[in-house]
Structure formats: C-alpha cells, structure tokens
Design goal:
- With 373 residues, the protein is an alpha+beta fold.
- The protein is built from ten helices and eight strands.
- It has a six-stranded antiparallel sheet, with helices on one face. Strands 1-2 form a two-stranded antiparallel ribbon.
- β5 and β6 form a beta hairpin.
- The longest helix is centred in the N-terminal third of the chain and has 16 residues.
- The radius of gyration is 20 Å and the shape is elongated.
- The two termini are 18 Å apart.
- 55% of the residues are buried.
- About 17% of the residues have low confidence.
Length: 373
C-alpha cells in the first residue's frame, strides 16, 4: 500500500494528474549475465510466451513471467525517458516488486491501485492504473525527496511510499538491480539525461526507439491488418455506456499512429499496449501482454455477443490458437459493419478493420470487468 503523498508534493504532481497515459515508444532487453536464458513456466507464466520484456525466465533465482518482466522494463525505460538516473529506476523497480509483485493490480488495500499501489491522493484511477503514468508519479515524488540519491534504496522508497513496512523493499534491491541493468537503454548514460535530482516535467518529445526485445518475432496480426482505415468514417456512434465510451474513444484517438513492438504510446503502439492503455483510461487495469489479457475478465461466447470494448484474440504471427499472440478491440458497427480497432503489425498504423477480416481466426473474446465500487 502506498499512502497518498504529503501535501507539499501534491503541487509537484499536479501536471501529471491530468495525464491518463504518458508512455515511452518502445523498449529493449539487453540480457544480463544473471538472467538465465531458460524460458518456461514461471510465476504463472506459460513456456514460450513472450512480451515486451522478453519471455518468462529466472532472474537472480526468482521466477518472473512475461507480464512481470514487461512491467519492469516499462518502469526502467520510463525512468530513462524522464531524464532521471539509473538509481531512480532501481528504487522504483524494487518498490514495485514489493508493492505488487510487478503486476498492475486493479485492487489493493482500501483504494490502492497499480504497480505501486498508489492511494487515491496520487491521482485518478486512470493514471494510477497505467504503468507508465504511475511510474511518472513515483519518479516525481522521489525527485522531491531531498538528497534521495544518497539515501539507501529502502529509505528512498519509504520517503515516497510511507509504507507500513519500511524495510521490506531491501530484500528486492539485488533483483531490481539486475532487471534495471538488463533494460536500461544503452544510449542513455547511467546518470540520466537531465540535471541531477530533477523531476520529470512533461511527456518527452521525440522519445527514442529502443531495439526490440528478445522474443521470437515482432508480434503482429499475421497479415490480417488489411483492409482497414486510419480515420473513422463519419457517423460512428460510440457506446452509450460512459465507461465503454471512454475505452473506445481512447483507442480511436490513436488511429494513424504506427505499430511498434513493445510500444505503449503515446505515439506508437503494439496490440496489447493499445488495449491496455484504452482500458486504463477508464480506470480498469488489465495485463500488459496478450498472454495475460486472454485470461482477464469474463469470456464472451461469440462475436455476435460482443459489445464495444471487448478484446478479440487471434493466433497472429507469433502465437497459437491455445496461446494467442494478437488482440484487437471491438468498437461496434461502423456504417452497419461490425468493426474492431487494433495495432496490426510492423509497417502499418493503428486502424479500424472489419471484424469479417478475422472470420475463422478468432480464438477467444474477453470482457474486462470494472472494479467493484
């Protein structure tokens, strides 16, 4: 549980609280020696499944699945983009391991949410449930701690989190150090790109493009991205339900932006990053990878029963029917034609696609569930 920051820090966080999504464009994995090359069932993962942080593996003797690795990578690359030193990523990753086991939780003690289990005083649920904007909140609060770079990791973390267990983060410092070493972009110096100890301000312009993770392929829909459109035809009616309208409008606002393996916005996306951010905008946490998303929420029996916001899965270029590797979001009819929106594959942009283009390929439909009041 992360208590709300003390009042002086609320002003520091104000500009971020308005951001539902602030995300880097992509990510890397540079495998550290302490990360084994053996993939397999790890912490609930399935052998062979992969994500933006690479496939499931052991890190310093700890089994981490693709979902957890993707979140560690997101925290690390977001810190680099913020211009903060690598030590800030170490503090942030160790904190997230303790608070959420590197999972973007849609629940917690009282109103705690997300990777850092941030309380309501940190900002809207949509911000706390987006892994990147949640990381920005943490970094801004960390930068406001006097002399944080000279403090032990566990002390620096507690000055931000005000935890009921202030020493608990210490056990994760070595693991966090290995993860940060693996994911820190080689183009960014360890001391960051901003003045020492400064806080991130706004989303960086022209964010760097990191190399792809060490997954078997580059993701994608297996050639099912055409025909499609990168602008919405006039006359489309969003769902009347306010939450579903927020989800769909977010996804459609990204039309025309490029596909990028590991991309989670704000200017480039992969398929699972797009739908995760869309649901986060409505205050609902879903996993980062297709392997996690295909088990989220509740199943939907058929495409005929789908409603806007539902996640539709196909095997794609890197998956199988049992473990799909590609996802799109149903948005309802466009000019009478059932339609989905998706980030298709490298070389194409986020687009709408007739659902009929996936006829015979759909292997699962899932409906994320809103958190209980």
């Amino acid at each position: 549980m992360s208590r709300a920051p003390r009042p002086p820090r609320l002003a520091l966080l104000a500009s971020v609280l308005a951001l539902a999504v602030v995300t880097p464009a992509a990510g890397i994995i540079a495998t550290a020696a302490a990360i084994t090359g053996t993939t397999g069932a790890a912490a609930g993962g399935v052998a062979g499944l992969c994500g933006p942080g690479g496939p499931a593996r052991q890190v310093d003797g700890v089994d981490l699945d693709a979902e957890q690795l993707a979140n560690a990578r997101t925290i690390t690359t977001t810190t680099a983009q913020a211009g903060m030193p690598r030590r800030a990523a170490l503090v942030a990753v160790a904190t997230a391991v303790q608070e959420s086991s590197l999972r973007n939780l849609g629940y917690g003690d009282r109103d705690s949410l997300g990777l850092f289990q941030q309380r309501g005083g940190w900002g809207p649920a949509a911000v706390r449930l987006n892994p990147v904007s949640a990381t920005w909140l943490f970094l801004r609060a960390l930068a406001g701690v006097p002399g944080w770079q000279l403090l032990p990791v566990t002390v620096a973390s507690d000055r931000v989190q005000h935890s009921a267990h202030p020493d608990a983060v210490a056990r994760w410092e070595a693991l966090a150090g290995t993860l940060v070493a693996a994911y820190w972009p080689p183009t960014v110096p360890p001391d960051g790109t901003g003045p020492a100890g400064t806080a991130p301000t706004d989303s960086p312009t022209n964010p760097p493009t990191w190399p792809a993770a060490d997954c078997p392929g580059q993701g994608g829909d297996g050639g099912r991205g055409d025909p499609g459109g990168t602008t919405l035809p006039p006359g489309y009616q969003p769902p009347t339900d306010a939450q579903l309208a927020t989800v769909v409008r977010f996804a459609l606002a990204q039309l025309g932006e490029p596909y990028l393996w590991g991309g989670a916005g704000p200017d480039a996306w992969d398929c699972s990053g797009l739908v995760q951010a869309a649901w986060a905008a409505a205050g609902v946490a879903i996993p980062r990878t297709t392997s996690g998303q295909v088990s989220t929420g509740i199943p939907v029996a058929s495409t005929a029963a789908a409603r806007p916001g539902d996640l539709i899965f196909i095997a794609g270029s890197d998956g199988t029917n049992a473990h799909p590797g590609h996802v799109g979001m149903y948005i309802g009819p466009v000019a009478g034609t059932p339609t989905l929106v998706a980030a298709p594959r490298t070389g194409l942009n986020v687009q709408t696609t007739p659902l009929s283009a996936w006829r015979g390929l759909v292997v699962a439909i899932r409906r994320p569930i809103a958190p209980r009041p």
